[in-house]
Amino acid sequence: MGPSSAQVHCSVSTWRQPCPPAASAERTALVAELAGRVLDAGAGRLLVGIDGFTAAGKTSFGHELAARVAASGRPVLRATLDDFKRPWKDRHLYDRESGEGYYRNAYDYESVERLLLAPGRSPEATSCALCSIDPLTQVDHSATTTPLAPDSVLIVDGVFAFRPEIDGYWDFRIWLEVDAELSVRRGTARDQDWAGSDAESVHRDRYLVAERVYLREADPIGRMDAIIDNTTFAAPRLLEP
User: Fold this and answer.
1) Closest Cα to residue 53, out of 174, 163, 180?
2) What is the reported pTM?
3) Which residue spans within 22-73 are E strands per DSSP?
4) What structural domains and CATH numbers belong to the chain?
5) Tens digits of residue pLDDT in 48-81
6) What is the DSSP string of 87-129?
């Protein structure tokens, strides 16, 4: 008899995507292989980071990976760095709308570390917060905590996940590779509801510029444990780093 499935604990944020249905046997097999690699990293608590260009598919892949890891019997916590941005009420204090300003100022890494990653790393910690400021409602959820077990797997997705401020926390690093233009096209289509006619310029002139600053300064690709070509959702390819 195999292990019983464990629970996947998700953020209380309203900025939430559902776990996508199985796209293909090929994708299911790749997620299973990555889950096996993650579990091979150790029997204790593990921190997994998933990064890549905007709209590369990070959140969806994180959900798929979480479901597979939980099916092995390990409890999983899911978080996204978008739930740890600085509050909009303070946006007059800094530049967050240019590409460089977005990279430098949009995310609150002190909160990421204090609320999420440091507790996740500490054997003494019994809980962590999966959300600081809700990106949509701006409600502060930093006091809402989720239990941490000794063998919990914390799976976190988000752009700039391997910046120097938080890079040292990860036990396993995953990069989802997509072409820059595909990132812009996917993101533009996804964000029409809130960005409207400005969606393409937001992605091209803010997010893509920020990504290029990140790649130039943090140079994360060489530190990956796995690189996945996620150009075609139903046919992802595992690239060796």
Assistant:
1) 180
2) 0.95
3) 46-52
4) 8-226 (3.40.50.300)
5) 999 999 999 999 999 999 999 999 999 999 999 9
6) PGGGGGGS--SSHHHHHHHSB-HHHIIIIIIHHHH-TT--EEE
Q: Could you tell me the pLDDT band of residue 47, with boundaries at 50, 70 and 90?
A: very high
Instruction: Find where tokens 């199985």 sit.
Output: 22
> What's the token pair of residue 126?
């019994």
Chain-centre distance of CA 216, in angstroms? 20
Where do we find the tokens 């239990």? Answer: 147
Task: Strands of 11-75 (E only): list them.
Answer: 46-52
Rg (CA), the chain: 17
The secondary structure element, H or E, covering residue 211 is: helix 208-218
Element (H, E) at 172: strand 172-177
Q: Among 199, 177, 165, 208, which Cα is nearest to 52's? A: 177
192, two tokens: 């029409």
Residue with tokens 């299973």: 32
| CA 65 – CA 50 distance, rounded (Å) | 10
What would the two tokens of residue 202 be?
């937001």
